[in-house]
Design brief:
304 residues; alpha/beta; Rossmann fold; 2 domains; seven-stranded parallel beta sheet; five-stranded parallel beta sheet; 11 helices; 16% strand; binds D-malate; 3-phosphoglycerate dehydrogenase; NAD binding; NAD; oxidoreductase activity, acting on the CH-OH group of donors, NAD or NADP as acceptor
């Protein structure tokens, strides 16, 4: 019997890949052979010596002490690409929210009171404050051309946007299934100065920390929009707030709320929802459950 410890809720579709006649699965279990988790932060955790594999139902592995685990011979699996459509859709929603002032307009509508005739009057007076702009012809910069970045780039292109990609390790030409109309930036600085929207699809590592800082914000086009659905810390939030206040940035859409960002009138924060769709949760859980099962049963390492 293989024992699996779950540190977060894992979609039933994934757990169903582990037949109960040979897998015991529980959120509390002694001497587990493997751990399945989503966003539980494992760095401080004492990881039982019996663990041979960890399966992260998501793309990033920054909540897992990967180096320590590797030294101990524990194999860490993740689910690259399994939630990329979900993230892409939320990035598109974020762009549209910014372009059409949806957050502010919704807050305005919710604040309306009185009879419908009074509401209509207030609507007539107030709607001029929410005139937006359209996406075709605007330029989107995509930093990171992995499974998510490529999908975002293609979808924005289909909406009529000009798209410029940049990745520190792959060229636009070699990125898998990327539309041939996507242009290549030579560097982050090159991309930053040419875009109306910039979206990030890179992990948070030493070289991406505060990739957007006060200096780079100065080089951005006036009224540009930042979208961070990757990891908190890629953008220097204090510098971004200063740029929102000075009018340099039009909006900052961020999937990580903080005290600094959550109440800013031109910042829309979400509670890390990029991968939160039923489909993505299922896809991720199925992918890592299959990987962990194959490893525990046959010693196969099949991280796709
Ligand atoms: C990811 O790395 O893919 C996301 O953080 C997944 C999640 O929200 O759990």
């Amino acid at each position: 019997m293989h024992k699996i410890l779950t540190l977060n809720n894992i979609s039933v579709a994934g757990l169903d890949r582990l037949p109960r006649d040979s897998f015991e699965i529980a959120s509390e279990i002694t001497h587990p052979d493997a751990i399945l988790l989503r966003s539980y932060k494992m760095h401080e955790m004492e990881i039982p010596k019996t663990v041979k594999a960890i399966g992260r139902a998501g793309a990033g592995v920054n909540n897992i002490p990967v180096d320590r685990m590797t030294e101990q011979g524990v194999v860490v699996f993740n689910a690259p690409g399994a939630n990329s459509n979900a993230v892409k859709e939320l990035v598109l929603a974020g762009m549209l929210m910014a372009a059409r002032n949806i957050g502010q307009a919704w807050a305005f509508s919710k604040g309306l009171s009185g009879e419908d005739a009074e509401i209509n009057k207030a609507v007539e007076a107030g709607k001029k404050n929410f005139v937006g702009f359209e996406l075709p012809g605007r330029t989107l910069g995509v930093i990171g051309l992995g499974a998510i970045g490529v999908r975002v780039a293609n979808a924005a292109h289909a909406l009529g946007m000009n798209v410029i990609g940049y990745d520190p390790t792959i060229t636009v030409r070699s990125a898998w299934q990327l539309s041939s109309d996507i242009k290549q930036a030579l560097s982050v600085d090159d991309l930053v100065s040419r875009c109306d929207f910039i979206t990030f699809h890179v992990p948070l590592i030493e070289s991406t920390k505060h990739m957007i800082n006060a200096e780079r914000l100065k080089c951005m086009k006036k009224n540009s929009v930042l979208l961070n659905f990757a990891r908190s810390g890629i953008i220097d939030d204090e510098a971004a707030v200063a740029a929102l206040d000075s009018g340099k940035l039009y909006a900052y859409i961020c999937d990580f709320p903080s005290n600094l960002l959550k109440d800013h009138p031109r910042c829309i924060t979400l509670p890390h929802l990029g991968a939160s769709t039923a489909e993505a949760e299922e896809n991720c859980a199925v992918m890592v459950a299959d990987q962990v099962r194959s490893y525990l049963e046959d010693g196969n390492i099949t991280n796709s």
